[in-house]
Specification:
Strand order of the largest sheet: 12-27-28-29-23-26-13
Radius of gyration: 31 Å
Helix content: 10-25%
Distance between the termini: 37 Å
Strand content: 25-35%
Largest sheet: 7 strands, mixed
Shape: elongated
Number of strands: 29
Length: 545
């Protein structure tokens, strides 16, 4: 990350100039507990924690829990699980709500300095008074209230004298500022609701733009890293710390481009809508870009961290092709998971010249890329299953798999020739009658003739049935609105497959490569001993299309 990370260049310059007097670099990851984290947050997590680690500093996990209406303990638990799963350990776990008294004192300080006032305008009126990008705003009638009146009203707001929305506290800055965020922004609002951490102690809550710089200052954060949409808010961030004046060393906010990925939604609000509307199973649906969903789909923390490192940190907003993420997952799994034989759309094969009742053991490698993973034993008998994609009654050009009259190698076993196609009265293929060459068993020093095609198989007398969920992208391009995305109505299908018997012992969360199909994981919620459910993680590139 260092080569493309402009933030690290800034930090190294600060260290060289002794900007913080030798104090360790301090960062924080500050999620709002109003939803599950998605892969865009993973980029921020990796940046915050690895930056602190690189420079021998600290990184706090701090919940920005200033909006109790949308927050829930469920989200807190999920956030902590996600951070740990990605491989990071925070220095301190903190809550913005722990600083509510200091924030209140800071607001009182601004009032005493004539830098804040209580306003009676409604939210709609405040928006109307704010002006536009080309026209200055209009001052609130309450802007020139005395310090004494503002202190009294703000105290009464805290005491619960007013209803939600009846009054707000606004910073007194500049209604003609070119930056609309500086046009007397609201810094406190009334909300009579129970807070998950402070209960009913408070009925007024600070706004994010007021709370966040105070939180950073209290914790001694040196570099407050956030996404680019907060760039226009930085003058307000600096104004709050400077005008409150409680802290000698101000934290430095630095913005970077947020992560956008094709076919993925990067908005907790929109993801929550998908959950609430029942479009997906929940926040951890394997189609979701949430960290919980990616984990359930079989993604590894190493793959996600490698992806975040590969895309780097830039100032500009850009969109990354989802294929790059899939490449990182495939690249991570290829050397660490074992292979298993699973056939989709199974076709029964009868080896007519193989003795009835006989079964023999064949040895196959667990991972051709990782010999250290060893080998396993599968069985071969008179009745087998092959993959539907491995047979074609009328083969196309350069199709080297099974078809009438053709000979292929059954991986780990023998050369097999298709002799006859058996169909039912409706013309559907029931089974294939084949013969095998007993002189061609793999692993026994056979060095005779070669065949062009190799396919896998499953012993019909020693197998297990699987439910396999295959995924398309949850979001697809809207054909009627270029540049927009819509929900894909066909983003998942469940198929019944037949796998080798060893899969009976698979555990929820265990990952495999289904030979020549892709990478799959036993579902952590649905998979049971006698009802195996696997989720497709990422596919392989086919040798024939």
């Amino acid at each position: 990350m260092a080569e493309t990370n402009f933030i690290h260049q800034i930090i190294e310059k600060d260290i060289e100039e002794n900007k913080y007097g030798g104090r360790p670099i301090a960062t924080r990851f500050p999620p709002e507990p109003n939803g599950y984290l998605h892969i865009g947050h993973a980029k921020a997590i990796c940046l915050d924690f690895t930056t602190a680690e690189k420079y021998g500093g600290t990184c706090n996990l701090r919940y920005d829990d200033t909006n109790p209406v949308k927050e829930d303990v469920e989200y807190v638990d999920s956030i902590e699980e996600d951070v740990k799963w990605l491989g990071f350990t925070w220095n301190k776990r903190l809550w913005a709500s722990d600083y509510f008294e200091t924030m209140y004192d800071a607001a009182v300080e601004l009032i005493k300095k004539g830098k804040a006032y209580v306003c009676d305008l409604s939210a709609e009126e405040i928006k109307e008074y704010r002006g536009t990008l080309t026209e200055p705003g209009k001052e609130s009638p309450a802007r020139n209230r005395t310090v004494e009146e503002n202190l009294k009203l703000f105290s009464e707001m805290r005491e619960g004298k007013y209803a939600d929305g009846e009054k707000v506290l606004r910073a007194k800055i500049d209604m003609a500022s070119a930056n609309i965020n500086m046009r007397d922004p609201v810094i406190y609002r009334i909300a009579h609701t129970t807070h998950h951490n402070t209960g009913d102690k408070w009925c007024i809550y600070p706004m994010y733009d007021f709370a966040h710089p105070i939180e950073d200052a209290i914790e001694g954060i040196t570099h407050s890293l956030c996404t680019l949409e907060f760039e226009d808010h930085r003058p307000l961030y600096d104004w709050v710390v400077r005008e409150v004046g409680f802290w000698k060393e101000a934290p430095q906010q630095i913005e970077f481009g947020r992560l956008n990925i094709t076919h993925m939604v990067m908005s907790k609000r929109l993801l929550k809508k998908l959950v609430d509307d029942g479009v997906v199973e929940g926040w951890d649906d394997p189609r979701m870009p949430t960290i919980a969903g990616l984990r359930r789909r079989g993604y590894t923390p190493e793959a996600i961290r490698n992806f975040c490192e590969e895309i780097g940190i830039a100032k500009a907003i850009s969109t990354v092709d989802v294929a790059q993420l899939e490449h990182c997952v495939r690249d991570d799994l290829k050397n660490r998971v074992e292979s298993r034989n699973v056939v989709f759309d199974p076709i029964k094969v009868v080896i007519t010249n193989y003795p009835e009742g006989k079964s023999e053991v064949c040895t196959v490698e667990n991972n051709v890329n990782a010999p250290e993973l060893g080998s396993r034993e599968i069985t071969f008998s008179r009745e087998l299953y092959v993959d539907g994609a491995d047979f074609m009654e009328v083969p196309e050009k350069k199709y080297f798999r099974l078809f009438p009259g053709n000979e292929v190698r059954f991986k780990g076993a023998y050369f097999v020739t298709c002799n006859e196609v058996i169909k039912d009265e409706n013309g559907k293929i029931v089974e294939l009658h084949c013969t095998y060459d007993p002189q061609t068993k793999s692993g026994e020093g056979f060095e005779g003739r070669k065949v062009k095609g190799t396919i896998h198989f499953v012993d019909a007398n020693n197998c297990v049935e699987l439910k396999v969920r295959q995924y398309g992208y949850l979001m697809i391009d809207d054909p009627e609105n270029p540049g927009e995305q819509i929900v894909n109505p066909d983003s998942v299908k469940t198929v019944t497959c037949i796998g080798e018997a060893s899969l009976k012992d698979s555990k929820p969360g265990e990952k495999f490569q289904f030979f020549r199909h892709g990478y799959f994981v036993s579902d952590t919620k649905l998979s049971k001993e006698n009802d195996l459910v696997f989720n497709e993680t990422v596919g392989l590139k086919s040798s024939w299309k």
